[in-house]
Amino acid sequence: MSNPPPLPVVCAVIEDNQGLVLIAQRPAHKHLGLKWEFAGGKVERGESPESALIREIKEELGCDIAIHRPLPRSVHNYGDVVIEMIPFVCHLTPASPGPHPHEHVAVRWVAPEELRSIDLAAADLPVVDSYKKVRRNRQG
Q1: Is 54 exposed, middle or buried (0-12, 13-18, 19+ CB in 10 A)?
Q2: pTM of the shown model
Q3: Domains in the chain with CATH codes
Q4: In the beta sheet, which residues pair with residue 83?
């Protein structure tokens, strides 16, 4: 019997004008409770990852994003579920309201250098590494 394909999940590395990125804290009663993460969610059947991300950010944070570039995808096995993480670097659109935690406990803007010291969900760690690599290449 073959394993089902990984569940496609999108996430947004939302940058602000000062070079900070947005993270969100999961509710205590949900899977990975109180872990921090890049906001996002499941890609619905027939939906593109980009459309899913725009929808999820609007639902979870009440804001509008512009997607700038994809980051490398990765697969993570949480034991009870295997996900394919599909990350994108984004910015808030000029007319967007600020992010507000509709489905999270809290949101925070943090320096990219801080990300490894925060209690992030395991599937977000490869996203941090690829994001930092892209930032180094852009700066360097």
Answers
A1: buried
A2: 0.94
A3: 7-139 (3.90.79.10)
A4: 7, 76
